[in-house]
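Whiteboard transcription, Tuesday session. T.W. wrote the structure tokens on the left side:
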């Protein structure tokens, strides 16, 4: 099939599937994933794997937009307002999910590298689902504030965790014997360089958009700088691997905190990037091998349980240490079950980066995402209802 025709089919039918699924009070992203599943390798075969891979650059571009958006939401004033208690809860719920996911996959599937990668992919939360439920039920209160803070910040930790995991995986698959200290130094150097290039690109982008007069000029400049800075980070230098996603996130962080035209850039990119988001969800669904997923039933089940327990226990520990209210200790984990945006993007990114693990990563990440997108809104509603925050907003 011609790639242009494939894009037209996916966008048109994904839109219809998203609208249909929204009538069931489910996130539209679930419809995009299911449409992709119907069109993909597991069902009709309209979008075969070879064509899917040819369209991979669309997924990469969408992921760069998402990373930029995540960075733009990391406002310094938000951290000051949140205080140490919320920061501790966010860090511990993310690390808790990572630790439990790593152990679950290691015990049910085996292999240090795949367990490490999948744990990094699964430790972030889907902001859109949580925000949707809180808005729909007009929830307000301490638990709602904590949930909004967690889903807004733990994606950044997830991106960082994946960058570290990917570097470890490359070192392992290369077969070279490298000192743990040298490996740690290379990982740290890669992270620092990625962030530094992103901050520098943000400075340049800010300089240019201050002088742009029209929205279309802002859009062209923003996409150009983002693609240029991220593309420079694609290739390793003397064994040091960089992260184009951390670079894009750093560009967003600079613009979100230091540019007076951050809203203009955000509006321009939001309007342009939406079709790419739809495509990357539907292309992800099209790549899912349903038969292989069924063979991983035990691993997928352990993944879902471990992720919920890790986030709940981590949030409880953070709340207990910081002496937060009981409702935060009891119910925060229920509001962090959803997994979508950045997890799917990282899964597709990892599948292309590590083709020997492609089926495993795609099946686990996407198969569990469909479950979390159905159960997540129900669990968030349960949490805010038990906390008595429904209708207070």
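and on the right, the sequence the group agreed on:
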């Amino acid at each position: 099939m011609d790639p242009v025709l494939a894009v037209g089919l996916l966008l048109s039918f994904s839109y219809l599937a998203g609208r249909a699924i929204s009538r069931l009070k489910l996130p539209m992203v679930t419809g995009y994933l299911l449409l992709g599943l119907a069109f993909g390798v597991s069902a009709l075969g309209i979008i075969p794997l070879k064509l899917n891979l040819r369209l991979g650059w669309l997924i990469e571009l969408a992921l760069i937009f998402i990373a930029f958006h995540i960075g733009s939401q990391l406002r310094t004033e938000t951290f000051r307002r949140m205080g140490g208690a919320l920061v501790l809860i966010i860090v511990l719920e993310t690390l808790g999910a990572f630790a439990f996911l790593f152990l679950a996959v290691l015990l049910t599937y085996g292999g240090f590298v795949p367990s490490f990668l999948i744990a990094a992919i699964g430790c972030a939360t889907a902001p859109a689902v949580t925000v949707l439920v809180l808005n729909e039920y007009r929830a307000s209160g301490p638990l709602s504030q904590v949930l909004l803070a967690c889903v807004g910040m733990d994606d950044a930790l997830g991106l960082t965790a994946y960058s570290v995991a990917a570097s470890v995986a490359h070192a392992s698959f290369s077969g070279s014997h490298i000192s743990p200290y040298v490996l740690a130094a290379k990982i740290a150097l890669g992270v620092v360089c990625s962030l530094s290039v992103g901050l520098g690109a943000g400075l340049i982008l800010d300089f240019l958009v201050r002088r742009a007069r029209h929205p279309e000029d802002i859009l062209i400049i923003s996409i150009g700088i983002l693609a240029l800075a991220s593309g420079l980070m694609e290739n390793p230098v003397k064994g040091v691997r960089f992260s184009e996603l951390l670079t894009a996130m750093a560009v967003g962080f600079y613009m979100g905190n230091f540019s007076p035209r951050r809203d203009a850039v955000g509006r321009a990119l939001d309007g342009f990037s939406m079709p790419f988001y739809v495509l990357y969800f539907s292309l992800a669904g099209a790549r899912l091998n349903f038969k292989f997923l069924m063979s991983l039933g035990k691993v997928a089940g352990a993944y879902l349980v471990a992720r919920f327990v890790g986030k709940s226990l981590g949030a409880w520990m953070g709340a207990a240490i910081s002496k937060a209210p009981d409702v935060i200790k009891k119910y925060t984990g229920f509001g962090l079950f959803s997994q979508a945006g950045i997890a799917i993007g990282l899964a597709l990114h990892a599948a292309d980066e590590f083709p020997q693990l492609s089926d495993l990563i795609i099946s686990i990440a996407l198969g569990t995402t469909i479950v979390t997108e159905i159960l997540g809104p129900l669990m968030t509603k349960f949490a805010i209802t038990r906390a008595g925050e429904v209708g207070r907003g």
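Someone added at the bottom: Residues 76-108 form the longest helix (33 residues).
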